[in-house]
Amino acid sequence: MTLIDWFANRQKADPTIQTQQEREIADGLWTKCDACGAIAYSKDLKSNQMVCLDCEHHRRVTCDERVAQLIDGGTWSSLDDHIRPSDPLKFVHRKPYIDQIKETQDKTGLTDAVLTGSGKIESEGVVLGVMDFRFMGGSMGSVVGEKLTRAIEFGTTHHLPVVILCASGGARMQEGMLSLMQMAKISAALARHREARLLYIPVLTNPTMGGVIASFAMLGDIILAEPKATIGFAGRRVIEQTLREKLPDNFQTSEYLFEHGFVDQVVARPKLRSTLAQLLRLHQHHPKESSVTDTVA
């Protein structure tokens, strides 16, 4: 028996060592990858923006972490934090909708499923919207629609590009038609943004589904996506039952959409900041210059 085998057997036989390992994992010192099962030192994982060092699985991150990863330090200014959700339909399922909102707010520290603001990415001004899947699955309710619409309008008024990081299960059906109306409202704001010849980049993260993908997530001038993100409108099972066909294994992934022309580029999270900065620099908004005819004249 080698020394390594002896030490491995000792670890299995000694409950004290196992308890200590479990305690260290529980205390957050180590993090287990949901995809490959590899154990990583949490500080190393955070320094790699929560991307597995072995299999490159992209773990979900919070909206605050996204801002820290993308925005230059000291330049972030949040927008419309005062807007809070209500219960216009007095919706009740297993519990009243208003109680569900309050519980989620207490658990996440968020007012709703999106954070908006302005800042700079490598010194390039931008308006940023970040959806957070922790808040009721990132569902799009009236507050999400209103905050994103105001953020886009802020970008249009101040001649700034808009970037929205999408992470959502779709429309928030506890708000019924009011939730579905947000699709048209955000899309109309983006149309005015485009008329002003300003840049809009959606970044599709895991997952981006339902009414979000059916509206503003697919209206970008340039559409980016994180690797292996689930992206689609209806779920795989629903589509297979409707079409009565077996779908490809990689169906509704970033890579599948890229191959079929729905996504312009799949970008790993550690490279997202530099990629966005490069795109922003290439599409800087300049005052209208004289036409070729005027120059010739």
Task: Give structural notes.
It is a single chain. By secondary structure, the chain is of the alpha/beta class. The protein has one domain: Alpha-Beta Complex (2-enoyl-CoA Hydratase, Chain A, domain 1). The protein is built from twelve helices and ten strands. The strands form two sheets. Strands 3, 4, 5, 6, 7, 8, 9 and 10 form an eight-stranded mixed β-sheet that branches. It has a two-stranded antiparallel sheet with strand order 1-2. Helix 6 links the parallel strand 5 and strand 6. Helix 6 runs parallel beside helix 7.
Please summarize what this structure is.
By secondary structure, this protein is of the alpha/beta class. It has helices at residues 3-13, 15-26, 42-47, 63-70, 97-108, 142-157, 177-195, 210-213, 236-243, 254-259, 269-282, 292-296; strands spanning 30-32, 39-41, 77-78, 114-121, 124-131, 162-168, 200-209, 224-225, 231-232, 265-266. Helix 6 runs parallel beside helix 7.
Write the layout of secondary structure elements.
Layout lengths: L2 H11 L1 H12 L3 E3 L6 E3 H6 L15 H8 L6 E2 L18 H12 L5 E8 L2 E8 L10 H16 L4 E7 L8 H19 L4 E10 H4 L10 E2 L5 E2 L3 H8 L10 H6 L5 E2 L2 H14 L9 H5 L1
Helix pairs in contact: 6-7
Keywords:
two-stranded antiparallel ribbon; alpha/beta; globular; 12 helices; single chain; 297 residues
> In what range is the share of β-strand residues?
15-25%
General shape: globular
Low-pLDDT residue intervals, each spanning 5 or more residues: 287-297
CATH homologous superfamily designation: 2-enoyl-CoA Hydratase, Chain A, domain 1
Gap between N and C termini:
90 Å
CA-based gyration radius? 22 Å
Largest sheet: 8 strands, mixed
Mean pLDDT: 89
CATH-derived topology:
2-enoyl-CoA Hydratase, Chain A, domain 1
Fraction of helical residues: 40-55%
Query: Could you name the CATH class?
Result: Alpha Beta
